[in-house]
């Protein structure tokens, strides 16, 4: 428990902090929550109340858990020696982490540093647009994105947002971003046997409608995160890869959530054998100990910007101010070392299987659990009002399940303010260090919470 003097902190927060994703009217009747300390999977608030954090910092970030002194030491040692220089120059941790990272990503060779997932995706979109001008006479500017996927909060990233409620009220958006259908078989758009292949074929149909000569890239999450924890069906990714190659379309995989161990592989796409052209990542890269995000590309993409033409506009004319901070790569190096040294990829696979088994048990027990899905320590349970019709449970009731878990000392998440009528999935992403007891506690809390809310 945190024992420092917290007098005045709550009121200072209430008076001056603009919280993320919050309607602040709520704080007229209750205090904002202040998280003051974390160890392992546990965090403590200003009242000394202990919680098991089953969402890794609220947004799928703290992959190696809280309280890692070695990461703190790595940051301190680096920033005292050299804290920052613009990305036009290199740094020791930047070079070392880029080498470590690309070693985990066969076929990928170049790392562009930035400071958030939204910004990393913006960089990728800019590259696609510039390549269109450099190589295709200004054509192939369109970026395809998938319904239910999410790629960030900026106007550019929201232009590629497959979640209507996240994008609402922020338009007009950038042109040439085009949506393709989702691949959630539980909410199937087609009654076919090979659903994964059919969902991928729907992407090709959009390409043909738009004109292949106008489409520069396809941007997808390997597993849809905030849109409902959607694991693509069998055959989907293989067909997606084939379509991209057929029409000379760059494959951009957004690993902001799934990257760096969350699914039991270093990256989610590695479960499927695909070879992307661009990969973006952020949250788990340094487990939230420092701000860092990366856009990683193949050498072929990099070479499109490395020319001898002498044109001052020919290179990638972009900068991320805080992409030059050395704390991020210093933390990321130690984060990756911990994952390897402690066998956390294997643990993620083992504990992920235990979590899915627990959720399957809840599905058998509670009629309101319509579907469970996940990969590694990344799982979702979709709640329904009627299992036969698959009518979604009212999101207010889903929120009550989340609240009931919270009262039991377990913090879980849910899809919210994302997809009209379908904010009905409980979201789980405990740290990769989870034990069997941790997983059982999460499942038991959800079991009790569903019993309390839905009977």
Give a brief rundown of this model:
Helix content is 36%, strand content 16%. It has 14 helices and 16 strands.
Q: At the third CATH level, what is the topology name of the largest domain?
A: Aspartate Aminotransferase, domain 2
> How much of the sequence is in beta strands?
15-25%
Unreliable stretches (pLDDT < 50, length at least 5) are none
Could you give me the name of the CATH homologous superfamily of the largest domain? Type I PLP-dependent aspartate aminotransferase-like (Major domain)
Distance between the termini: 35 Å
Physical arrangement of strands within the biggest beta sheet: 4-10-9-8-7-5-6
Main CATH class of the largest domain = Alpha Beta
How many structural units, i.e. domains? 2
Number of helices: 14
Q: C-alpha Rg, in Å?
A: 22 Å
How much helix, percentage-wise, in residues?
A: 25-40%
Given helix and strand content, the structural type is alpha/beta
Q: What's the rounded overall pLDDT mean?
A: 96
Task: Tell me how many strands there are.
Answer: 16
N-to-C SSE string, H for helix and E for strand: HEEEHHHEHEHHEHEHEEEHHHEEEHEEEH
Major sheet size, sense and barrel closure: 7 strands, mixed
Q: Architecture of the largest domain in CATH?
A: 3-Layer(aba) Sandwich
Shape: globular
Pfam families: Aminotran_3
Keywords: Aminotransferase, Pyridoxal phosphate, Transferase
Protein name: Aspartate aminotransferase family protein
Family: Belongs to the class-III pyridoxal-phosphate-dependent aminotransferase family.
């Amino acid at each position: 428990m945190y024992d420092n003097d917290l007098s005045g902190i709550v009121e200072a927060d209430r008076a001056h902090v603009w919280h993320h994703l919050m309607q602040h009217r709520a704080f007229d009747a209750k205090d904002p929550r202040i998280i003051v300390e974390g160890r392992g999977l546990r965090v403590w608030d200003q009242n000394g109340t202990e919680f098991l954090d089953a969402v890794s910092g609220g947004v799928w970030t703290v992959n190696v858990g809280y309280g890692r002194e070695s990461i703190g030491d790595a940051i301190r040692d680096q920033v005292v020696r050299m804290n920052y220089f613009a990305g036009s120059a290199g740094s020791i941790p930047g070079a070392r982490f880029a080498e470590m990272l690309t070693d985990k990503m066969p076929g990928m060779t170049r790392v562009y540093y930035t400071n958030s997932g939204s910004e990393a995706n913006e960089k990728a979109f800019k590259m696609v647009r510039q390549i269109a001008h450099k190589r295709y006479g200004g054509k192939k500017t369109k970026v395809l994105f998938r319904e239910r996927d999410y790629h960030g909060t900026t106007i550019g990233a929201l232009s590629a947002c497959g979640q209507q409620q996240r994008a609402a009220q922020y338009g007009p958006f950038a042109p040439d971003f085009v949506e393709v259908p989702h691949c959630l078989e539980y909410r199937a758009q087609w009654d076919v046997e090979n659903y994964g292949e059919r969902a991928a074929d729907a992407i090709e149909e959009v390409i043909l409608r738009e004109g292949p000569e106008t489409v520069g890239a396809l941007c997808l999450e390997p597993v849809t995160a905030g849109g409902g924890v959607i694991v693509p069906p069998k055959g989907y990714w293989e067909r997606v890869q084939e379509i991209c190659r057929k029409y000379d379309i760059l494959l951009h995989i957004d690993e902001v959530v799934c990257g760096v161990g969350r699914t039991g592989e270093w990256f989610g796409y590695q479960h499927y054998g695909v070879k992307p052209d661009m990969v973006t990542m952020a949250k788990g890269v340094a487990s939230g100990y420092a701000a860092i995000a990366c856009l990683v590309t193949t050498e072929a993409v990099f070479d499109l910007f490395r020319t001898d033409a002498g044109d001052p506009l020919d290179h990638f004319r972009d900068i991320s101010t805080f992409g030059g901070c050395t704390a991020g790569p210093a933390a990321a190096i130690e984060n990756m070392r911990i994952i390897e040294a402690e066998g956390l990829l294997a643990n993620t696979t083992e504990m992920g299987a235990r979590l899915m088994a627990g959720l399957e048990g809840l599905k058998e027990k509670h009629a309101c659990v319509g579907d469970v899905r996940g990969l590694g320590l990344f799982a979702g349970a979709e709640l329904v009002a009627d299992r036969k019709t698959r009518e979604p449970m009212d999101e207010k009731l889903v929120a009550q399940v989340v609240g009931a878990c919270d009262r039991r000392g377990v913090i879980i998440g849910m899809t919210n303010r994302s997809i009209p009528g379908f904010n009905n999935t409980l979201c789980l992403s405990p740290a990769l260090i989870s034990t069997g007891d941790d997983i059982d506690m999460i499942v038991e809390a959800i079991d009790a919470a569903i019993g309390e809310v839905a009977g």
